[in-house]
Amino acid sequence: GGWLLLQNCHLGLEFLNELMDTIMTKQSMSEDFRTWITTEAHPEFPINLLQSSIKFTNEPPQGVKAGLKRTYSAVTQDLLGVSKMPQWKPLLYAIAFLHTTVQERRKFGPLGWNIPYEFNQADFSASVQFVQNHLNDVGVKHGVNWSCVRYMLGEVQYGGRVTDDLDKALLNTYARVWFGEHMFSEKFCFYKGYVIPKGNTVEDYLQYIEQLPVIDTPEVFGLHPNADITYQTNLANETFSTMVSIQPKDSSTRGGETREAVVQRLADEMLEKLPPDYNPHEVKAQLQKMGAIQPINIFLRQEIDRMQLVISRVRTTLTDLKLAIDGKL
């Protein structure tokens, strides 16, 4: 009745076929048993396992406000008070802002990153853990070693994923501009209106995050305002391409029928061809004439029952589909 977690299964596709056979051929299995699989999208992933599974995807939220809100919703009061050094809370917020920024830049395509990197929550957690350990090591007297912090964030924690030289330079620029003694001054801001709030509780930070704008200008991420035009254009083109791709392909031969009209016509044709339900009394009478206890007739009765279920299910589904198209379901 436990849970089995298999991670990064795109690296072991051959085992998944064995896993599928084991699950399908198992004689008895606890109702509380679950198998969780984490994987990247892969064209050779077993399609039968994919179809029999419930799919989940975890996408980062859109915008600085939503990103920071999600990050700080997972921050506990114990984490906020884990260090007594005054640099800890501003550094935690700055790392959260950096985490949101590197994710948001992906939506701008090559303008944001030359290569779209999969930054995730593990990068943020590792960065926070490093800063916490660093502050514990240096203490109040020595202060923060900013060269070390910038190198770890720009070259190791987040930079470890980066393979392009220009992307690496961009990430190191963020680390240099946002992390230093200047970040504790009153004039410091990530961008106009985006500052490091002061607070002692998680609620204080969440209240400040709620005041941030829902839609961010590209200049927050260090991009030109025209980058938003490119993003919106690409988004509109993608939306229209999706709409066109789901349109019926035979519209030219059918006089420009809509998708709903095609489905309605096919449903009507199938309902006309569908045979009527079997009359159970007639079936029973005919089988008694033929010898109801003969094995072949018992088998025939079972097949008639199964066919009756199929006919009823198809008729109900097609009828509901027509009502749904007409808006009467």
From TrEMBL:
- Domain named Dynein heavy chain C-terminal is located at 234-328
Q: Dynein heavy chain AAA lid domain: from which residue to which, for each copy?
A: 88-227
Q: Which organism is it from?
A: Picathartes gymnocephalus (White-necked rockfowl)
Ranges for the Dynein heavy chain region D6 P-loop domain?
A: 1-57
Q: Which Gene Ontology CC terms are recorded? A: dynein complex
Protein name, as recorded: DYH5 protein
Query: Which biological process terms from the Gene Ontology are attached to this UniProt entry?
Result: microtubule-based movement
Q: What molecular functions are annotated in GO for this chain? A: dynein intermediate chain binding; dynein light intermediate chain binding; minus-end-directed microtubule motor activity
Q: Which domain of life is it from?
A: Eukaryota
